[in-house]
């Protein structure tokens, strides 16, 4: 672009600014990066056609990459032995952005991330950031408005001797700014430099030719209509766009420019309509403000009526209690006065003593007869003392349970919107909480609000947290360990909401969730065990080898267990993990074992083992009774045939029916390494089934063993991707 053309276009924009038709404040919304909320710096065009700063893309990918390396341990204890990477620093990003930088361990491996503009996931493909185009047009506009914002700050000549003069031109080929004198010196007539492209003073230099990011030596000369992005001829001949419809760059330029100009002209022509709609919106805002205040006043009136009723009932109840209290105290007072009269020199006794002094027989008999009756009555009352009234006010306890429940459901008129119901079977809690609900009128609800709060042990009222949801399920994170949480949901249609659903109470695990996979190297027997590719499921195959080993049953021996352990050890802290045992499983053992015990098991594999020497084998052997109380470096419980077997102990009943429980759908294991204690939980009710001490002097590993046909599935951590997977099933 020539100097005159550049200046005339810039002058046109400045003229619009001066006339107030386009203000920097209004247009800045289009020039601000949705990630960093600042003016764009080297913006890149994402596949969804939104733009984002180059550094922001790097930071987002590195952050997601670090989260990926921290597999499932967002809620894990910091004492977990897994390696954790810190969040990416600006230092790291600067090293990545530095010219000449080569790909190394700092290269983001993650290529999928949510666009900050539209929140939809975008996939950068194999080339990652290298495959994105730089939005030079947006960059130029940002630079123009930066100049407009700092009009008082001049751009100085880069070649002047100190002190530098104010520049008048900038050369796009030299990427430098010049004053008039320096420009003549470094761009003399008759030389190649005289043909350089120059513009008005700027600090934004961009290449003259746009090159293909996939074929770096090729110019962009075509436009893919399907992908809506510029491409080179190699992309069309044998690249990703070979089967796509393309057009020439000049044709695409002409078409898009005509469309854009036409749309802009349409908007400008509709300026009066837009202004009238803005006025209408202002009126609607004022009307909404008034209606909102009126609704608040109506709500206050209704609540004040309730307060009046409550105050009236409160006054009536308190009066009844006061009246009963006064009556009882009066009775106690009268009774106390009567008993005080029985004391010597007081009341009745004193009067009787005076009567005894009477010497006239007829007078004495006349007075003593009535007095004797009173003395007899007082004597009988002493023999059978009974308080004149009750001290308890049990009959005056106010029952507000029904009213409390009704007040808890107090809401706006539903206007026909049904109440959503939480699906208790599909809702669960692990590292996070997954809440599912169904709504009979799903298509009629615009959105839902999921509310949850922690239930305090002190009956302290905790405020509800609210999350707006546009589906019928939600993953709730950042819940505290070993706590009860209440969840409820309500539906919204416009400004009308339904009453809240019934509350669902879920108990979080007793410790942060510990993430691991099955170890395919340490002791893994691929002849008997089958491990899936994700290494979160293992199955035992009762094949020909097991059939041959069964011959030893004739001499009183049993086939051995096939062990498999977790790929991560624990050296301190509290950890919790869960798994499911397939219902068809014959015999499965699960628990924890120390590194030295595992070496003993796996270093000396035996084809046949007597269960008598397995302390937690589940058989009634003598060793089990003698060794149970001593702390040992492993603890395994037996699960099989749809049963959960609690090991024998001196404190538990030895009756089999008391030691055999139905197998839970999901079983949890809680290891407190520092206290040397392991517990086994029913995940459905978060109930502890069995716990005991364990020697944690070495690194502890999740340990499993199988015999015969069986299968173990590790519980998958609940994440947003888990939710998408559940919806697709």
From TrEMBL:
Sample GO molecular function, one term: zinc ion binding
Chain ranges of the COS domain: 356-413
EC annotation from Swiss-Prot or TrEMBL: 2.3.2.27
UniProt subcellular location: Cytoplasm, Cytoskeleton; Cytoplasmic vesicle, Secretory vesicle, Acrosome
Keyword Zinc-finger tagged: yes
Record-annotated B box-type domain positions: 207-249
Catalytic activity field: S-ubiquitinyl-[E2 ubiquitin-conjugating enzyme]-L-cysteine + [acceptor protein]-L-lysine = [E2 ubiquitin-conjugating enzyme]-L-cysteine + N(6)-ubiquitinyl-[acceptor protein]-L-lysine
Ranges of residues in domain B30.2/SPRY: 496-721
Gene3D superfamilies linked: 1.20.5.170, 2.60.120.920, 4.10.830.40, Classic Zinc Finger (3.30.160.60), Immunoglobulins (2.60.40.10), Zinc/RING finger domain, C3HC4 (zinc finger) (3.30.40.10)
Family: Belongs to the TRIM/RBCC family.
UniProt-recorded name of the protein: RING-type E3 ubiquitin transferase
